[in-house]
Amino acid sequence: IIAPSLIKSKVTDFFLQLIRENMLYRLESNIVRDDIVGLLSKYVQSGRKETSLNAGGVCDMTIEEVTAGAGTFLIAGFQTVAYTITTAAYELALNPEIQEKVCTEIEEVLNEYDGELTFEAINSMNYIENVIFEALRIHLVFSIIDRRCTKNYTIEPVHPGEKPVHLKEGDCVWIPAGPIHHDPKHYPNPQKFDPDRFGKNKPFSLMPFGIGPKSCLGVRFAMLECKLILVEILRSFDIVPVKKTISSLPTFKDTSFGLSRKTLSTNFK
Questions:
Q1: Which among 145, 232, 249, 256 could disulfide-bond with 175, CB atoms 3.0 to 4.6 Å apart, if both were Cys?
Q2: 10 Å Cβ neighbour count for 234?
Q3: What is the pTM of this model?
Q4: How do residues 211-240 score in pLDDT, each as one tens digit?
Q5: Are residues 93 and 153 in the same domain?
Q6: Does 16 map to a domain?
Q7: DSSP string, 64-116
Q8: pLDDT for residue 36
Q9: What is the pLDDT of residues 80-113, one digit of tens each?
Q10: Residue 67 counted as domain residue
Q11: Pick from 206, 148, 152: nearest CA to 172
Q12: Average pLDDT over the chain, rounded to whole?
């Protein structure tokens, strides 16, 4: 479910066992709750060893598959959001002029909504969204996106001396999102933290949540979480560097899956 370099296997096993026991207890006791475990439990067909489609065209899943799905929602949605908020706060601490622009936007938007931090207010904060996307561009959570070919395809050569690449149905393709995010052809001065490089529509070369129909299904919720937490922090505090704050953060070139192993130290003032 999650690469072992991100989360220790004993942690993953603990959560999966917890979810499995909870799900089985609900099924046996006929307990219905409106949460992720309850929603996924609807697709469990007890006793099946393989996934199948029922008469209504809905996928019946095994208890193991549903447990894995719930575990993915729980674990994948925690580490990635925490890392994104951390790197965004880190960049804001190192770039006080950008932080000031974010605070100005927060104040202006909240004035329009009578000081209420509503869903609509959060969605109208475009600059802080660009800050988050720029943090994700530089400090990508996953530097590789994998896809599987659904049909034979040939990538024709673009430059002299190159050879065509022949892909077969079923081949696994790795898309180097990290290098693309740091390619000067797409992003001039790529090491510079510059939220103003983005407009309302983000370029196709920006892929922190993947690309295409198989992109992250939790992207909107993740962005809402990041924006909400950063707004709440910046309404009351300035994010400032401290003595332990490193001047530059390792990028995809020397990290695992894009996640930095360095401790990021900032302070709220």
A1: 145
A2: 21
A3: 0.75
A4: 888 888 788 889 999 999 999 999 999 999
A5: no
A6: yes
A7: HHHHHHHHHHHHHHHHHHHHHHHHHHHHHHH-HHHHHHHHHHHHHHHHHTTT-
A8: 75
A9: 888 899 999 999 999 999 999 999 999 999 999 9
A10: yes
A11: 148
A12: 82
Residue 222 belongs to some domain of the structure: yes
Total domains in the fold of the chain? 2
Query: And the tokens for 221?
Result: 């919720």
Residues 116 and 238 in one domain: yes
Q: Same structural domain for residues 214 and 91?
A: yes
Q: Give the up-direction half-sphere exposure of residue 72: CA atoms within 13 A in the CB hemisphere.
A: 12
Q: List CB contacts of 192: < 8 A, sequence separation 6 or more.
A: none
In the DSSP assignment, the letter for residue 190 is T
Q: In the numeric block, which tokens belong to residue 185?
A: 């052809």
The string of DSSP codes covering 7-69 is S-HHHHHHHHHHHHHHHHHHHHHT---SSHHHHHHTTB-TT-SS-EE-TTSPEEB-HHHHHHH
- CB atoms near residue 141 (< 10 Å): 22
Q: If you write DSSP's letter for every residue of 137-178 in order, what string do you get?
A: HHS-S-S-EEEE-SS-EEE---STT---EEE-TT-EEEE-HH
Question: Is 216 flagged in the annotation as binding?
Answer: yes
Three-state DSSP class for residue 240: strand
Range of the domain at 153: 142-175
Residues 208 and 237 in one domain: yes
| 101-105 contacts at long range (C-beta below 8 A, 24 or more positions apart) | 101/127, 102/127, 102/128, 102/131, 102/230, 102/234, 103/234
C-beta atoms surrounding 8 within 10 Å = 11
CA dist., res. 4 & res. 263, Å (int): 19
Q: If pLDDT is split at 50, 70 and 90, which confidence band does 57 have?
A: very low
